């Protein structure tokens, strides 16, 4: 893995966390995501539960060995993003003749900088509620909330595949494939 790709991955992982706390305050997310407001928001809790239930219970152990489950998971994520008004794209790539897909959606903002918010939908030896269906559920609900906002940063929402073994720490990770593609097309995708 090249140093440039490693740096991009670090920025994707760490940068989103660092920037999120500050930048989401400009979108008003900090107030709306406080625990006290969420615990009384049955609609948000039900939506999160619906996503986690489908991804973790109805599609248990969606891993590399079960490509049909990964395809159903990516199809679900794509459908949910479409329901929010996005035009999601599948970022397909092959490993040993099998096709895998990251799911991406873009929200144009008024600020020139672009945030990347991602979570992975594959699992390893567990149903995945904690790793990482809950992250995908939150990604979907943040995407839904962001679609209604007119100010703020442009955002790329990405549901990654192949983040778990045997692909973990390899060039087959969905986040690696995504980052590598961003280097090649950054002027076109990150700053349209």
Topology:
Elements: H1 3-27, H2 29-32, H3 35-38, H4 42-58, H5 67-83, E1 89-95, E2 98-107, E3 111-120, H6 129-147, E4 153-160, H7 174-189
Parallel strand pairs: 3-4
Antiparallel strand pairs: 1-2, 2-4
Helix pairs in contact: 1-7, 4-6
Strand order of the largest sheet: 1-2-4-3
Helix content: 40-55%
CATH domain class name = Alpha Beta
Q: Compute the gyration radius: what is it?
A: 16 Å
Second CATH tier, the architecture: 3-Layer(aba) Sandwich
Number of helical stretches of at least 4 residues = 7
What is the domain total for the residues? 1
- Give me the strand/helix succession: HHHHHEEEHEH
How far apart the termini lie comes to 28 Å
At the fold tier of CATH, the topology name is: Aminopeptidase
How much of the sequence lies in strands comes to 15-25%
Q: Please give the largest β-sheet.
A: 4 strands, mixed
The count of β-strands is: 4
Shape: globular
Structural class: alpha+beta
* Low-pLDDT segments: 9-38, 187-192
* The CATH H-level homologous superfamily: Zn peptidases
What would the average pLDDT be, to the nearest integer?
75
Fold and architecture overview:
The protein has 192 residues and is an alpha+beta fold. It has one domain (3-189): Zn peptidases (Aminopeptidase), CATH 3.40.630. It is 53% helix and 18% strand. The chain has helices at 3-27, 29-32, 35-38, 42-58, 67-83, 129-147, 174-189, and strands spanning 89-95, 98-107, 111-120, 153-160. It has a four-stranded mixed beta sheet, sandwiched between helices. β3 (111-120), α6 and β4 (153-160) form a beta-alpha-beta unit. α1 (3-27) crosses α7 (174-189) and α4 (42-58) packs across α6 (129-147). The protein is globular, with a radius of gyration of 16 Å. The two termini are 28 Å apart. Mean pLDDT is 75; it is low at 9-38 and 187-192.
């Amino acid at each position: 893995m090249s140093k440039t790709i490693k740096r991009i991955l670090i920025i994707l992982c760490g940068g989103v966390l660092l920037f999120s706390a500050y930048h989401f305050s400009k979108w008003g997310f900090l107030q709306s995501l406080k625990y006290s407001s969420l615990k009384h928001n049955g609609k948000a809790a039900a939506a999160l539960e619906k996503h986690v239930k489908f991804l973790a219970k109805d599609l248990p152990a969606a891993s590399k060995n079960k490509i049909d489950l990964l395809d159903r998971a990516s199809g679900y994520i794509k459908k949910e993003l479409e329901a929010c008004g996005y035009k999601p794209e599948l970022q397909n790539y092959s490993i040993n003749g099998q096709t895998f897909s990251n799911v991406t959606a873009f929200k144009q903002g008024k600020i020139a900088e672009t945030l990347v918010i991602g979570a992975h939908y594959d699992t390893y030896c567990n149903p995945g509620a904690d790793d990482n269906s809950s992250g995908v559920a939150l990604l979907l609900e943040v995407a839904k909330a962001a679609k209604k906002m007119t100010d703020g940063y442009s955002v790329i929402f990405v549901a990654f595949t192949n983040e778990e073994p045997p692909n973990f720490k390899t060039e087959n990770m969905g986040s690696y494939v995504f980052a590598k593609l961003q280097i090649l097309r950054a002027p076109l995708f990150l700053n349209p």
